[in-house]
């Protein structure tokens, strides 16, 4: 009895420090990373697109003041100068207004928070006008002085956890999160964001911080702001950037007790599969059998802002917008499959891996422009506005928690499955056509394929699929079709 009570107490204690819930509004799913977007543009995007199309959340680029670097590479935002909310994306007032407007239409905001380090040598002026001297570890706008940092040394050995956590990642001045002043400043920064209505954090470079220090910091985070529609007692959702592809001393399991982690194996594996280096039939046990963390601890993605351009753990197998057919197939699989918390990358087009976002004058970020088919121009790729992707967000919302059922494969690269009786998808990654009668799990009727088109009134702008009274339908996906997927769901019934 005592043992049971004791265990229950321990479980409660663990939960009180654990921030695994996304805080999404019910009925919504799917997060988009609006990489380098401006706050005013995001506010409008929430109202015009993300809200109406069912997106649940968005990740923003770092919100705090960063070093201004020469030709304005995207990565200057990972070099903090202070915790003032002033960047090329906008100021604090604009950020607060954005969070409010997004929450009003049911879209939650997650901030990419950078507190492992401050700017490296060379970054002396901030986007908010503050000055710093990284060479003497002086950041007066926080303020931090040399007392707040670990001794200077370079990260050279991923087999040595102390080197990885106490030395400098690519020369970035390494804060000591064991120091109480440093902790206070970080906690104030995060709690200020929570007050403004954000729903959680992507913790940059979490692997480079000691789990015990992170636990102490997370343990002091305020509950979410109930004035923004969050339930009382809700904690920020935390997803930590821990790159663990195996073979290093630091493992993601050191962090999964504290929050979710960015599951880089998902990105690596899904890239290999849809590039044809692994067969689709093996996806039958997609999930922890592939070495992923548990579903509620895994923030999953096809690509992220680093690995799409070869930074971080960027293998050649990562799929990006540059290989659209495979990219859309992988994204459709990620969104159709129940595993993990999916995040969609929304990029700007690039050739040079250091190149910053589109600007009007080399400095000020340009706004995206929108075409009549929902897509973007002006240098913005906007994968989240590709029909094959946003319609799969709607698919995910339509199927909810329905179980994966009716798995079928042809023994190589053609697969299909249903989500209970709510939705059905089929994929063809073979170099010959898929043409089979398959069990969809759905009720009899005619459905609009949400990959090739959209349900519009009582019609469909793409293919239609007819399900018979036995739940079966003839599924055809030609090997040379523009998209190698078809998807139908209850809300796309004609
Ligand atoms: C820039 C310049 C640098 C300059 C520096 C300071 O590019 O030349 O020295 O400024 O002046 C971003 C950019 C950086 C940029 C930085 C600051 O990517 O280029 O530096 O802003 O402006 C590691 C970390 C991970 C980190 C990733 C990039 O663990 O946390 O590197 N990602 C985040 C952000 C990222 C940002 C920062 C952190 C810094 O998402 O945008 O940097 O705030 C192994 C380890 C990984 C490690 C990689 C790369 O990966 O496992 O943890 O990532 O090495 O060092 C195979 C292995 C895989 C291995 C990989 C690469 O895939 O399986 O494990 O190979 O070898």
From TrEMBL:
Reactions listed under catalytic activity: Endohydrolysis of (1->4)-alpha-D-glucosidic linkages in polysaccharides containing three or more (1->4)-alpha-linked D-glucose units
Residue ranges of domain Alpha-amylase C-terminal in the record: 405-493
GO BP of this protein: carbohydrate metabolic process
Group of enzyme by EC: hydrolase
The EC number(s) this enzyme carries: 3.2.1.1
Family in the record: Belongs to the glycosyl hydrolase 13 family.
Protein name: alpha-amylase
Species this protein is from: Drosophila virilis (Fruit fly)
